Amino acid sequence: MESLNLIPSFLPIGISSPPALFVFFLTFTFFLHIIFVNLTLGGSLLLLTSKYISKIYGDNNYNMIAEELGYLNTFNISLTVITGVAPLLFVQTIYGNFFYTSSVLLSFKWLFVLAAVIFAYYFYYLYKMKPLYIRYSGGKGIVFIVIAALLFLYVAFMLVSNTVLSMHPEAWEEIYLNKRAFFDLPALLPRYIHFVFAATAFAGLFLMVYSRMRKSFPKELKEKMYNFGKKTFFIITLAQIPVGIWLLLSHEKEIMMLLMGESLLGTVSFIIALIAAAAALAVVLLKKDNLYFLAGLGVVITIFMVLIRRTIESGYFSKYVNIYNMETNSQWGIFVIFLVLLVAVLGILGFTLFKINRELKPENK
Question: What is the per-residue pLDDT across 75-115, written as a single tens digit (0 to 9) for each?
Fold first, then answer.
């Protein structure tokens, strides 16, 4: 297979812990990361939608929803960046020879991801703080959120592109020689649409729960926020059905079959995710106030979607390398330090969310 010659060799020094541990922590930290990615990207899109509804129908409640989302996303962006460091490092450790090459092929388009996140973050703060010249303008700085949302969509597209490109070494040479565009890769477009839809649906679910958490919000605002989140979650989740089928069929047959009996983890995850999604749709229709159960279903769907992602990526990479055969130079002292620091970071993250929850009460703003 000629494409094997294009894959850089693993570092000869070996990795510091068994590969299975790296895979576990890659999956776990990516799950934490994707929660805040969904809130940031989906929240940005819902913010713009709320502003549009407010302008078209003259309903100030939707303007207040948009302002609240803008306030929340300044926290979500920070947490997205913080939780994104660990999975990126784990990917570079166990799949670095694939990820490095795909990053080089994307060149400046990949490098701009960092700048895009920084600029989007600043634009959100301009919208949130509203300096004098923005505060008294007609648009109230909404142009900054439009730009930030476009930048986040770009970042999401490049992350999906890098992931898909890293799984297709057979396409590297043609892309390098400009005989093929990277966005022509199979599964890239449906995977990206599925990613954006999932983020939007998750943000809608969050709005439903959040509307009930803010006890001091006016009743009308809470109802508008709840219904907006409910409609978003329901409609986008329904839209995920054809997109999901498109994504599934865009994979090679042997990869697709990993979710249909060939892999126990992939098959079980696929079935549970489908059942949880169907149950969530039913709860939205039939049990309006069962929000904690619905939130739990949202977390379950996210967990098993992450496991499905892991199964598919492992299926592609296993055609070229068996990561479980990587040379290991175990250094358990470093691993213990990592565990201690991980627990500390999770504790700080939990405390941060607790403080944010208190600060978000309207009377404390």
Answer: 899 999 999 999 999 998 889 889 999 999 999 999 999 99
Give the domain CATH number at 118: 1.20.1630
Instruction: Compute the C-alpha angle 65/47/132, nearest 5°.
Output: 80
Tell me whether residue 347 is in a domain. Answer: no
Q: pLDDT value at position 6?
A: 73
Please state the pTM of the whole predicted model: 0.90
The answer as to whether 208 is a domain residue is yes
Model confidence pLDDT, tens digit, residues 276-295: 999 999 988 887 667 788 88
Determine the residue type at 38.
Answer: N
Whose tokens are 């249909």? That residue is 260
DSSP code of residue 181? -
Whether residue 339 is contained in a domain is answered as no
DSSP type of residue 322: -
Q: Are the C-beta atoms of 86 and 29 separated by less than 8 Å?
A: yes
Structural domain harbouring 192: 15-330
Q: Quick one: DSSP state of residue 200?
A: H
Q: Which residues of 202-223 are buried (b: 16+ CB within 10 A; e: fewer)?
A: bbbbbbbebbeebeebeeebbe
Please choose, from the candidates 361, 71, 61, 63, the residue with its C-alpha nearest in 3D space to the C-alpha of residue 221. 61
Task: Specify if 146 maps to a domain.
Answer: yes
Q: Would you call 15 helix, strand, or coil by DSSP?
A: strand
Our count of domains for the chain comes to 1
Alpha helix positions (H), 107-187:
108-129, 132-135, 142-166, 172-176
| CB 225 within 8 Å of CB 362 | no
- Burial classification of residue 23, based on how many CB atoms lie within 10 Å of its CB (0-12 exposed, 13-18 middle, 19 or more buried): middle
Q: What is the spatial distance between Cα 238 and Cα 241, in angstroms, rounded to a whole number? A: 6
